[in-house]
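Form 12-C: Joint structure prediction
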Amino acid sequence: MSAIWTVARREFAAYFATPLAYVFLIAFVVAASATTFYLGDFLERGQADLGPFFMFHPWLFLALIPAIGMRLWAEERRSGTIELLLTLPISTGEAVLGKFVAGWLFAGLALALTFPIWISANWLGSPDNGVILASYIGSFLLAGAMLSVASCVSALTRNQVIAFILGIGVCLLLVVSGVGAITDSLRGVLPSGVVDLLASASMLTRFATLAKGVLDFRDLFYFASIIALFLFVNTCVVEFERSA
Amino acid sequence: MAPLVEVEHLEKRFGAIAAVNDVSFTVAAGEVLGVLGPNGAGKSTMMRIIAGSLAATSGVARICGHDTRAQPRAAKACLGYLPEGSPLYADMTPEGFLDFVAAARGLDAATRRGRVGEAIARLQLEDVLYRPIDTLSKGFKRRLGIAQALVHDPRVLILDEPTDGLDPIQKGAVRGLISELSADKAIIISTHLLEEVDSICHRAIFISAGKVAGGGTPRELHARAANHNAVSARVDAGEAKRTADLLRGLPNVASVDQKTEEGATYVVATPKDGAFIADAVAGALRAAGVDASSLTVETGSLDDVFTRLTRRGAGARP
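Section 2 - Result
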């Protein structure tokens, strides 16, 4: 446990070693606000809720989360520090978890910095803050799931740019499998059972319920499973490279 | 007492290529083992396997009696490792980095402060403690790499080219440190500086094409050089031929050569099987009235042993 925390602390601090972290945080808050106000008609629709804010999260995360995750393993491999990390008395699983926790906390920080939107909603009207909290939890889980994917693909390469693009690619697949237009066009090709399965495995479908403020156990379980699965594969990839 | 490092029939294959091929050796406490070999011979691969960052295809490595594969955590706990090229987290400061390594090694905050301070003092890193590692010179980076390897006072140290990139004074300091540390530790260093074998290693092995091509104490290695105990006599140029003929007639002399260095003429007699012929040469020269202005006995160059062992490739065992 303390090993995980040691790795996480170092990794979290590493985000702030360059101004990139601040650029990232500002970009996220600006993008989240812009989509809420301009694309989501936050003001015009005249409802005191954060629906327009949360509905764009899967699409924002699609670009931003792979950017958080891309360096986790690719940078270790490029600089050779993975040699050090793997010879410390830390198991590979602990290192994977530690890095993931650091990235997830960073994503959480970005999410927390969107609090002015929550304040605006409360100032303009009286939204259901319970729903907002549940939506934030859902959004945080979505970020975690995408980060586990990004971390996993980051272990496949020593090039951060490749890790970033691969991360976007895999996350995109997991998101768009729930987009109506795509599932509809798939229905012509695949049996409807398969299409339903794909749609139900989509982060978008799962996130939609959470974003409405409904903390359904099945959705929570889904995101937890995605995280567990990709971190497990992540561990296997690192282990495989060690014995290859 | 069992040796602190035991390596048995270690093998690592990358596809069809055997990077490490049936390597066995032991290192006891108080011993410094030098690993020599040309670039690409498999030195670093072997050290990575023992340190646990790479898994062997077959064979066993034990650190302080712990199998590096079955009990990796216990094995790593008694090990300090400087990887090839001394990779470091470029965005950290030396102080933060050493603290991270010490924490990952399981030292609590109080112990950590003491140990980190000790490592800093030992490697003279005081001046750069708060500068990003990125901006440090090669010498500082190497020393920081060594500092992180010994921050937890391990019983076994594996240092891949510890003096690479250091200036002569720093080299001397690091060698002094290694000798000092070796009192109660088992230390493995890789190097391609043969002088390092003489100055700090108690024993050395030559690795060639993944195999141990030979080894021994520095004294034994010197004895294996073709020019071990060769005697070179500086004579007048006019006397060279007569001297050479004279020495050729001596028993135990295998060959006699002439060479000219900076205008001076030398006649070099190489003995058979490294026999000690200095007395015989001196006596013969005196009896024949040859006026040799200097007479030098060669200890045998490790360069020669290195070249011969690695060219012959695998085969001989240490």
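Section 3 - Comments
Residues 109-122 of chain B form the longest helix (14 residues). Chain B touches chain A at residues 48, 51-55, 72-73, 76-77, 79, 81, 83-85, 87-92, 96, 100-101, 103-106, 132, 148 (CB under 8 Å).
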